[in-house]
Design brief:
The protein is built from 13 helices and 21 strands. It is of the alpha/beta class. It has 2 domains: 314 residues, Alkaline Phosphatase, subunit A (3-Layer(aba) Sandwich), CATH 3.40.720.10; 139 residues, no CATH class. The strands form 5 sheets. Strands 1, 2, 5, 6, 7, 8, 9, 19, 20 and 21 form a 10-stranded mixed sheet that branches. The chain has a 4-stranded antiparallel sheet with strand order 12-13-15-14. A 3-stranded mixed sheet has the order 16-11-17. Helix 7 runs antiparallel to helix 8 and helix 7 runs parallel beside helix 9. The longest helix has 22 residues. The C terminus is likely disordered.
Length: 476
């Protein structure tokens, strides 16, 4: 199938969790092909969402609206007014159209591989493969549906993800490499089928590698051991990523513009703060009896009729008030919430880390940081130590601070700065540095470049791409 004359082509490579320093500086020597894209492109840090998690960050990037508008606040959401039941959000719960849908409606041919949220797969004018949140054992992960059998016959079982919170490291590294190589190979083969207008592939392996190997490759990590067998693992893995990007770009028509993005950055984890255990100590959360160390809140004998606040673990703490008329055993009157919140914030301000320094707890209110609040939002969101401390939701620990993640081995946490790299075809212009950009501005930038109308409901605006970067200026 041909592409009409004058129609632009865009290839998007999404690298989960890659910080700008890795792509633009630290591993540039390991990534000669990508570094060539950087030298002729427009590059910037991409400020991610609150919270800085793949969901909501990727949906925000490709709808152009904030997490509250989408109703996505993380991988797991509280289910209604339940104290313990949760659910994983799905693609068919996305209330705003994605760039794939908008481009399809405008008659553009699109292919999107693994971009969260991707399950169940969305009908598009082209091909859609679902993401790493696809339920295990699913075979309904493609649009059109018959593509799944074709892919599995040619490449074997499709590699959605790996189990990365594991003590085993040798086989895990090989699994991450194979997953990444397979995904890029599948993408390159699909890319070669026709001259797509919009083609995108997301790779989760970069995020999994960071979480599993950070203390092995980062000499600044507190647990780094010189000469460990994985000290060179980042250089090896980023060479694999570079080869995958090169394979993709070479499979695309020569007039294709390339956009490399990440949803957030990554950094070393300092440890975990046991938020629910702290709430117990401060009298906000009540237990019927003591519990063994590491007991999840969901399995703990919580006295809900005496609890006013509880939280959840993860990269940040989701905080809920036990509100009368909302929760089954709610006891906080709505009018009491402002005073309760003020007391909670004052208590949080007194928390000190194991070194005796203030933990620096940042408190965010979804109602004030988003345009609107849909879905099952937390009442408050807490960041500990500028995100360097995870939130541990489990109970019974001998200390409020853990050196390790309470849900399995993990060396890294998320940071706010992702990657934005807009690279035109070879020879189009010299590279330029842009100021920090917003993740919400990616979707309208994509649509503007393709000549697809930008919906009025999009909160982002097209990024101004200087003509010196080799791409036509996109005006907001």
């Amino acid at each position: 199938m041909g592409t009409p004359a004058g129609r632009r082509r865009l290839l998007i490579v999404g690298l989960d969790g890659v910080p700008p320093d890795f792509l633009f500086r630290r591993y540039a020597a390991e990534m000669p092909f990508t570094s060539a894209l950087v030298r002729r492109g427009a590059r910037a840090s991409l400020r991610t969402t609150d919270p800085p998690i793949s969901v909501p960050a990727w949906p925000v990037m490709f709808t152009g609206v904030d997490p509250g508008t989408l109703g996505f606040y993380g991988f797991r959401h509280r289910s209604g007014s339940s104290y313990t039941e949760t659910y994983v959000p799905r693609a068919d719960q996305t209330p705003a159209p994605t760039v794939w849908e908008l481009a399809s409606r405008a008659g553009r041919r699109v292919c999107a591989i693994g971009v969260p949220l991707g399950y169940p797969p969305r009908p598009v004018n082209g091909i859609f493969l679902s993401d790493f949140l696809t339920p295990p054992g699913s075979h309904d992960f493609t649009y059109p549906p018959e593509l799944a059998a074709e892919l599995e016959a040619r490449y074997g079982p499709y590699p959605f993800d790996v189990v990365f919170r594991s003590d085993e490291r040798v086989e895990l590294f090989d699994k991450i490499v194979r997953m990444t190589e397979t995904r890029f190979q599948i993408a390159a083969d699909l890319l070669a089928r026709e001259p797509w207008d919009l083609f995108a592939v997301h790779e989760i392996g970069t995020d999994r590698f960071h979480h599993a190997y950070w203390k092995y490759f980062d000499e600044a990590h507190r647990d780094f051991v010189p000469g460990n067998p994985f000290a060179g693992s980042a250089r090896r893995y980023y060479r694999v990523v570079d080869e995958g990007i090169a394979r993709l770009v070479r499979a695309a028509p020569p007039d294709t513009t390339v956009l490399v993005v990440s949803d957030h950055g990554s950094m070393a984890m300092d440890g975990c703060f046991c938020v629910n255990q702290w709430l117990v100590e401060k009298g906000y959360l009540a237990l019927q009896a003591p519990v063994p160390a590491g007991t999840p809140l969901e399995k703990a004998p919580v006295a809900w009729d005496r609890t006013v606040v509880w939280g959840s673990g993860g990269y940040y703490a989701r905080i809920f008030f036990n509100v009368r008329g909302r929760e089954p055993q709610g006891l906080v009157a709505p009018g009491q919430i402002p005073a309760l919140r003020k007391r909670l914030e004052a208590d949080l301000a007194t928390v000190r880390d194991p070194a005796g320094n203030p933990l620096a707890v940042r408190v965010l209110d979804p109602k004030t940081i988003y345009h609107e609040v849909r879905g099952d939002a937390p009442d408050l969101m807490l960041y500990f130590g500028d995100l360097k401390w995870r939130s541990a939701g489990s109970l019974g620990h001998p200390s409020l601070f853990l050196r390790e993640n309470d849900t399995g081995p993990d060396d890294a946490v998320h940071s706010f700065d992702g990657v934005f790299l807009w690279s035109p075809p070879a020879g189009s212009g010299p590279g330029v540095d842009l100021p920090e950009q917003s993740i919400r501005d990616v979707a309208p930038t994509v649509l503007a470049y393709l000549g697809v109308p930008i919906p009025d409901a999009m909160q982002g605006r097209p990024i101004r791409l200087p003509t010196g970067a080799g791409a036509p200026a996109v005006q907001s």
